[in-house]
Amino acid sequence: MSGEVPAIAVRGLVNAFGTQVVHEGLDLDVRRGEVLGVVGGSGSGKSVLMRSILGLRRPQAGSVRVFGVDALSRVAADRHAVERHTGVLFQGGALFSSLSVLENIALPMQEQLELDPDLLHALCWMKMRLAGLPSDAGHKLPAQLSGGMRKRAGLARALALDPPLLLLDEPTAGLDPVGAAAFDELLRSLKQALGLTVFLITHDLDTLYAVCDRVAVLAERRVLACAPLAEIERLEHPWVRQYFHGPRGRAARREV
Amino acid sequence: MSDPSPPLFVDPEQPARLRAGGDWTLAEAQRLQAALTRAGPAEAVDARGIGQLDASGAMLLWRLCRQLGLEDEAPALREEHRPLFAAVSGICRNPPREIRRDWGLRALLGRIGWTVQDNAREIIALLGFGGQVLLTALRVAPRPGRWRITSIVAHMETVGIDAVPLVLLLSFMVGTVVAFLGAEVLADFGASIFVVELVGIAFLRELGVLLTAVLLAGRTASAFTAQIGAMQSGEEIDAIRTLGLDPIEVLVLPRLLALVLMLPLLAFLAMLAGIAGGVVVGATLLGIAPEMFIARFQETMELRHFLTGIAKAPVFAVVIALIGCLEGLQVQGTAQSVGERTTSSVVQTIALVILINAFAALWFMEMGW
To answer: Which residue segment(s) compose the domain that A251 sits in?
Structure first.
């Protein structure tokens, strides 16, 4: 693997639902080792973009490469390679409700690898703690967890296979400000310790300022701009101006 | 990427030092674990030869250090691996408490106790719910503006009219089977004609309404539980409450009324279909012409058979609707809970319907009805 290949490379992506076009010729690069924040209004296709990268949705046109491998490939081995290299945290956590937290984390490892039960348990437990969950959370069911804990459990499961690339869909949505700040801190420390590349969809300006290296703005069916925050702020685009210079944007910037 | 060199080997220059090499990643975890168990005593670990290191590999590296009694001195690491090892070893220093689970005799007794208690609670809940629904019905009854006619009619269509083909088909089939079985036995006595009484009484008194009730228990009670359960897990029931509405009035009463109105009608259709099955078997296999079948039916059948049968229909309707709705309201959040409650509602309704039917048969017989 050469360092030149970006973690994610999207070229000419077209996504449409019937007559409603969501993406039209969308290009996006996510560099290795960076945290890329993806922002955009509701309905601008952030989640659709993520689903296209993951191969959960087949776009009408365009190519998606994850670490140089075609994510839309019909070859099972390519798909498998992409799956092994990506960890996903869905918006609601998407934990399997009938399994305990540890079982949720163990599931991908059990299916993909052959490990001793003892080693498996130790690895799951370590990943649970890595995601910032207390040690007594392991045997709880997802329904018994608070919103913040559920996100952490989802993150632990995303980390189960030690993927170099993490895709997060609004990880701090629905968390109280204290919980959201703690999650931001967790992301930052994990990124530093594990050297992760992170694709982060968020509405949360605080998260953007706290953890993102670059920000991609999705509007008008494409990536309007992809640059460090300081440059994005200076952009003369009505939506971007409202987003970053509205009352909430100002408050978030003041804190940094 | 995979390195052919062994993950652990003794330093050729310093025999007291272990050197780690290759990739220490999750994919190699099992091999690394095996290497760890083989590793002999050493005084230091040199991990600078490691190519790729991930969290799983870092944990194994820490385990190696612990195994060698070197917990407090970090191994020699490449610069980029240090933060990861520090994070993982920080976690691993506080191992989990083992949770002991008891699978023995005590657990068995405990579970029996819980189950008994659960069932008792379920019965009390059902009785309480029945009373609640009755009170709500009485409160709503004098105010026709709150009868929710649209909702009742919509439910009448889904629980009643949509079920007609299924009820007709299954009753007809059971009717033919009963006639056939009866004929086998009665033919030995030269009394094949008594098939008319057999099919007639069986369907008017018992089978027509029982078949319908069991079918609707599977078809409608489960639907009620799933509908209301999904609303419960989506907090819709709570929303109804906060809007000053009564879930029993809005959700339960229309379903109950629709079922009470439709189940007797369906049971009547089931009786007709079952008897039609008898007529067909009689005409084709037993040499009883349809006219003869119907003439004998008119001669021998009494109205009381029909009445004792159809009288049970509204009772079954109430049981099915109450259990279906109650189980739905008891759903707790998860999709799994919806599934469990739906199963439980079907099992409970079918069991109760058959139980009530048996007691009713006994009672009607003793009363000479």
So the answer is: 8-255
Asked, for residue A3, whether it belongs to a domain, the answer is no
Chain B: residue whose CA lies nearest to A116:
B30
B59 vs A114, A122, A135: nearest CB: A122
- What ipTM score was computed for the predicted complex, to two decimals? 0.77
Rounded Cα distance between A107 and A180, Å, is 27
CB contact under 8 A, B30 and A189: no
Show residues of chain B in contact with A127, CB under 8 Å: 55
User: Do the chains contact at B55 and A127, CB–CB below 8 Å?
Assistant: yes
User: Is residue A105 a part of any domain in this protein?
Assistant: yes
CB A22 within 8 A of CB A191: no
pLDDT (tens place) for every residue of chain B, 369 residues total: 444 567 888 877 787 888 888 888 888 888 888 888 888 788 888 888 888 888 888 888 888 888 888 777 778 888 888 888 888 888 787 766 666 666 788 888 989 999 999 999 989 999 999 999 999 999 998 988 888 899 999 999 999 999 999 999 999 999 999 999 988 888 888 888 889 999 999 999 999 999 999 999 999 999 999 999 999 888 888 888 888 888 999 899 999 999 999 999 999 999 999 999 999 999 998 888 999 999 999 999 889 999 999 999 999 999 999 999 999 999 887 777 889 999 999 999 999 999 999 999 999 989 888
Assign A25 to helix, strand or coil: strand
Scan residues 65-94 of B and list those with Cβ closer than 8 Å to A. 80, 83-84, 86-88, 91-92, 94
CA angle at B257 for the pair B253 and B262, rounded to the nearest 5°: 150
Place of tokens 């070893």: B89
Q: ∠A87-A84-A187 over CA atoms, to 5°? A: 25
Q: How many domains does chain A have?
A: 1
Partner-chain residue, chosen from B25, B91, B94, that has the shortest CB–CB distance to A130: B91
- The answer to whether the Cα torsion of B37, B39, B41, B44 is positive or negative is negative
Q: Bridge partners of A20?
A: A17
Q: Is residue A186 part of a domain?
A: yes
Q: Report yes or no: B147 and B140 within 8 Å, Cβ to Cβ.
A: yes
- Would you say residue A152 lies in a domain? yes
Q: Per the CB < 8 Å rule, is A193 touching B59?
A: no
Contact between A113 and B29 using a beta-carbon 8 Å cutoff: yes
Distance CA A221, CA B101 (A): 55
The token pair that represents B149 in the structure block? 């006619």
Give chain A positions within 8 Å (CB) of B26: 109, 113, 123, 161-162
Orientation angle between helical segments B164-187 and B208-216, nearest 10 degrees: 140
Count CB neighbours of B334 within 10 A: 15
Mutate to test the interface with B, among A101, A123, A144, A196 (most CBs of B within 10 A): A123
Q: What share of chain A is helix, strand, coil (3-state, %, to 5)?
A: 45, 25, 35
CATH of the domain at A127: 3.40.50.300
What's the pTM value of the predicted model, to 2 decimals?
A: 0.67
| Other beta carbons within 10 Å of A102 | 22
